[in-house]
Design a protein that fits this description.
44% of the residues lie in helices and 10% in strands. The protein is mainly α. Helix 2 links the parallel strand 3 and strand 4. The structure holds zinc ion (ZN).
């Protein structure tokens, strides 16, 4: 699970240098990067290469186009972005790192991005539909749903009914925009801030989302495992060495579950 790839520092931000190191590491070690549908096939028991990973990005930041897209293209890899459809802008494609450093748009840090969301001025922080289209055509990124506004309705609604009514609107608005702009809506969906509950899951399924991506890291996505609870590992802003070791641990049939148990236990101790 990635968010930003940017020279700006801050939370959930990976430097372009470390991102490139991680991508080169995948290529050097012979990994295949899956599409979400290939990952769904894996869950359904269809064959996938033994060294397979699914790279996901959340929210749809402009820096994904500026830095992550050219690096994926260079290494022939692919990834997924879960976009918040209400934050995506209109207008022409902006420059990306392929055009050289002088031409690049100024990229806000993660905290600046969130401040821009709060005042409804998201164009300088988030992707445009034209950039999404360009990345789809290049085969670097595919795009799936991450709600329309990224609001934690469970925290701001007076009742659960009100909360679920808001979530219905989220699903409806985001599905409509994805359909208009991409021509299709997939079955893959990612929870804002990782929050979900049983009624949320039922609602997402009612709207056609079968594969639900969480921010829970301490479990394994295995063949025949539950597609409504997909685990993801948050990447660190570190080089290929850390990244490849973390992937190895996550996928190992013995080490993986032991590591997950240990980390869950440590988390419980911290409260
Ligand atoms: Zn998000």
């Amino acid at each position: 699970m990635y968010h930003h790839v940017s020279p700006e520092t801050g939370p959930i931000t990976m430097s372009p240098k470390n991102f490139e190191s991680q991508m080169k590491g995948l290529v050097d070690e012979g990994y295949t990067t899956l599409t979400c549908d290939q990952f769904a096939d894996f869950l359904a028991g269809k064959p996938t290469p033994p060294k397979s990973v699914l790279l996901t990005f959340d929210d749809g930041y402009l820096d994904n186009w500026v830095y992550a897209h050219p690096i994926l293209k260079k290494y022939g890899l692919r990834a997924t972005i879960f976009v918040v459809t209400g934050l995506i802008g209109e207008g022409p494609v902006r420059a990306c790192a392929e055009q050289g450093a002088d031409a690049l748009p100024r990229l806000p840090s993660h905290l600046e991005c969130r401040a821009l969301w709060a005042v409804g001025s998201t164009d300088s922080a988030m992707l445009r539909w034209s950039e999404i289209q360009a990345m789809r055509e290049a085969g670097t990124f595919e795009f799936h749903c991450h709600t329309h506004t990224h609001t934690r309705w469970d925290q701001v609604s007076k009742t659960r009914e009100e909360c679920l009514a808001h979530m219905r609107k989220e699903f409806e608005a985001s599905r409509a925009l994805l359909k208009d702009n991409l021509g299709e809506v997939s079955q893959h969906f990612c929870w804002p801030q990782g929050y979900f509950a049983d009624d949320y899951v039922s609602l997402a399924q009612e709207y056609g989302f079968r594969y639900l991506y969480t921010t829970e890291a301490y479990g394994q996505n295995l063949r025949a495992s539950n597609p409504s609870k997909i685990y993801r590992v948050a990447v660190k802003n570190r080089s290929a060495r850390w990244f490849l070791r973390r992937i190895w641990i996550a996928g190992h049939p013995v080490v993986g579950p032991l590591y997950n148990k240990w980390r869950s236990w440590k988390r419980k101790l911290r409260g």
